[in-house]
Every structure is written in C-alpha cells, then in structure tokens.
C-alpha cells in the first residue's frame, strides 16, 4: 500500500500533468438516496479518464536509462491514452498495442498523443501478450494498467482530492476493473479518515472480486460481454487484491440495464457524458445496492464513450427506465389503419419513434398486416395507459423485446 508521503509526492508530480477534476453535487441523486451525493468528475480529466494519473506518476519515476529505452503498454482505451499522453509530456517514446477493431475515437486519440500504435489480436489479452514480448525483445519498459505501486500511488491522488473537497464524506463509491483506482483511493482515504466506507462496484458480467474476496485469494472468472468494457477484467491484480481485501468495506455488482439507466441519468440530470464503466457507482446507488450511504462521493472514472455506443446505451437506458417500448400489433390490411393507431398513440400522449410495416410476419393472416411500432413514454404507468387505450379500441398489442 502506498504511504501518504508517496501519495503526496504523486500529487506534487501530477500537478502540471493531470487536471484537478471538479466535484459536482447532484440534487437528483440526493432526492433518490435521501443523502447528499457528490460526483468526482474524472470523466473531465485530461484524456478523459483517471488513468493519466497512474501512468504519469509511473513514467515520472523512470530512470534516465529507462526513459531512453521507451515504454510499452497494452490497452483498448483509457490506459493507452493515459500512457501516450504522459509519455509525450515527459519526452518518452511510447508504443501501444491495441486489439484489432478497437473503437476508432480511442485509436485516433492514442495516435494523436504521439504514440506508435500496433494493432494486434482480437482481444486485449492478445495485445497484452504482444506488448510483453515487445518489452522483452526491445528493452522497452512495460507499463501495467493497474498492478504496480507507482500506478496505485498515482490513482490515490483521487482520494486526496475527495477528502479535500468533501471532508465530511461518509461513503466513497469506486468502479473496479483490475483494482488500481479503488486501491489508490482506499489507501489515501483510509489512512486519513479510516471511518469512511469504501464501496467498490463491478459489472456483474465481469465480477472477479466478489468470488476472489470470498475465497481469500485471486481467482480468474470467465467474463461475458458487458457495456462496461472499461472494467471488464477477469483477474484482479496481485497487489490491488491485497489492498482491496484489507481496506475496502464491500464490493457490489450491477447489471448492464442498471448501468445504462445510470448513464442516462447522468446525461439528463447532471449534463455529464460518462462511459458505462464510469457510471457503475451511480448505478449502484440508483438500484439500491448501497444502503444508508450518508454523505457520498461517487467517482465517475471516465468519459471516453464511442458515439455509436452512446446511442445504443441511451436506447438501452430508455428501455430499462420504462421510457421506450416496441409494440407488435396485427391490423386489417386496408387503408387508414396506421393512421388510426397513430392517433390512438398521440391521444395517449406517447410519441412514435419508428414503424416497421410488413405483410410477411409470422402468424399473420392473408388479410392482415403486422406493425412493430416503437414509442417514447414517460414510464411504466404511462405504458400501461397506452396499452389499455389500444386494447379498448379492439387491438391486441404485444410488447416485444427491443
């Protein structure tokens, strides 16, 4: 665990390299939880993520001989950008291995920061193996994404800033992937304010910490696809696991639907663009996974979200929040029926988003057509009213999976 002296040294080194990100109060989340909720906006950090902190501090501690050899890292996003930016600022050559098919904005950002990017493998693990081979062959210094004392110390500066901005905080909620951020935050906070609860949040499709903590040792779990790809890590770090085990009070998990709903809340209510991995702490609050939090700080760990992914996540969030639904309705095949349906929906104060009209739907009679009509609604009660209006008009609407 990094000492306070080491963490304060990291804060000094990072002052000209990383931004001190804002702390925003959320009235909406306070109304939901019954407690004051603050948001630590690392999504507004340089490179769009807290990762710049650990990467910059690790690179700053390299010797002149190590700097001359250059650095290498592997990542599909935030770590890549953090290392690339830090290397440029410190005048160090950087090579970053990224998987083929990485999101174009992340690829271009990493290149724009001056790194040499190599596209290898279809998943990050394959890129990671290639990066380690490159380090062995060339002598470049490998920069791990989370499991290194300097990286943890750099991330710990988030914890220092939290206590300075909200000295009476009672609970700090932190996303967990490999564990570098929560290890650093916990190290800083628990040394200065041991009474503060530290709660970690993982995506339920990639949650290695709960079983590892239960077993008392690092376990590897099989991950399945999740929108929170920034924290989709199947094996905790060795160093980070020990710190989490000793200092973190609890680790909870959230579903993709809960994360999508949280991302939508942050966008609408806080006017903050946050990537899914950065929104899991808010998801845990909204879904009631954390009880009696008291004055709370939720760390928004990053904001690097691909616009196409944002579109999908917003749609998922609308569905999860009962504000979007698609109905399948059989209609007589004669003129004017679509106008009748549209009028009924308008009278119920719902808004049509998309219509698919076909004569070839499964189970459709030869004298019928089938429509799939997507509508925006105000919530579950409003959806029930719409369904009732359509049924009273003689239709048999069926909600289909969206």
Description:
- The structure is a single chain.
- By secondary structure, the protein is α/β, with parallel strands linked by helices.
- 44% of the residues lie in helices and 18% in strands.
- It has 16 helices and 14 strands.
- It has a 6-stranded mixed beta sheet with strand order 1-2-10-7-8-9, with helices on both faces. Strands 5-4-3-6 form a 4-stranded parallel beta sheet, with helices on both faces.
- α6 (104-112) links the parallel β4 (94-98) and β5.
- The radius of gyration is 24 Å and the shape is globular.
In short:
The protein contains 16 helices and 14 strands.
| Helix-strand sequence | HEHEHHEHEHEHEHEHEHHEHHEHEHEEHE
First-last Cα distance: 46 Å
Q: Give the low-pLDDT segments.
A: none
Structural class: alpha/beta
Percentage of residues in helical conformation: 40-55%
Number of strands: 14
Largest sheet, order of strands side by side? 1-2-10-7-8-9
Q: What global shape is seen?
A: globular
Number of helices: 16
Q: Rg, please?
A: 24 Å
Major β-sheet, in short? 6 strands, mixed
Assess the beta-strand content as a share of residues.
15-25%
Q: What's the overall average pLDDT, rounded?
A: 93
């Amino acid at each position: 665990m990094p000492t306070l002296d080491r963490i304060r040294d990291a804060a000094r080194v990072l002052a000209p390299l990383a931004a001190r990100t804002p702390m925003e109060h959320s009235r909406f989340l306070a109304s939901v939880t019954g407690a004051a909720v603050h948001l630590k906006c690392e999504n507004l950090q340089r490179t769009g993520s807290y990762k710049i902190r650990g990467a910059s501090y690790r690179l700053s501690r390299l010797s002149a001989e190590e700097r001359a050899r250059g650095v290498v890292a592997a990542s599909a996003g935030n770590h890549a950008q953090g290392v690339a930016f830090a290397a440029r600022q410190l005048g160090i050559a950087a090579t970053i291995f990224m998987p083929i098919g990485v999101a174009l904005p992340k690829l271009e950002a990493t290149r724009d920061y001056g790194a040499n990017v190599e596209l290898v493998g279809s998943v990050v693990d394959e890129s990671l193996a290639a990066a380690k081979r490159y380090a062995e062959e060339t002598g470049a210094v490998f920069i791990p994404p989370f499991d290194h004392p300097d990286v943890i110390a750099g991330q710990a500066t988030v914890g220092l800033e939290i206590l300075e901005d909200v000295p009476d905080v009672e609970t700090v909620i932190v996303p967990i992937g490999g564990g570098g951020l929560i290890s650093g935050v916990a190290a800083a906070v628990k040394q200065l304010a041991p009474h503060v609860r530290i709660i970690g949040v993982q995506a339920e499709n990639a949650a290695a910490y709960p079983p590892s903590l239960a077993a008392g040792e690092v376990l590897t779990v099989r991950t399945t696809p999740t929108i929170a790809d920034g924290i989709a890590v199947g094996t905790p770090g060795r160093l980070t696991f020990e710190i989490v085990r000793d200092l973190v009070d609890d680790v909870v998990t959230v579903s993709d639907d809960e994360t999508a709903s949280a991302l939508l809340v942050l966008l609408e209510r806080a006017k903050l663009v946050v990537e899914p991995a950065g929104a899991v702490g808010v998801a845990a609050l909204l879904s009631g996974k954390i009880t009696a939090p008291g004055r709370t700080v939720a760390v928004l760990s990053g904001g690097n979200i691909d616009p196409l992914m944002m579109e999908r996540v917003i749609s998922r969030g609308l569905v999860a929040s009962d504000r979007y639904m698609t109905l399948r309705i059989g209609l007589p095949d004669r003129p004017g029926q679509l106008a009748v349906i549209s009028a009924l929906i308008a009278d119920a104060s719902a808004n049509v988003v998309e219509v698919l009209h076909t004569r070839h739907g499964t189970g459709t009679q030869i004298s019928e057509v089938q429509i799939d009509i997507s509508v925006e609604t105000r919530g579950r009660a409003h959806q029930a009213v719409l369904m009732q209006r359509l049924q009273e008009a003689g239709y048999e609407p069926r909600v289909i999976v969206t």
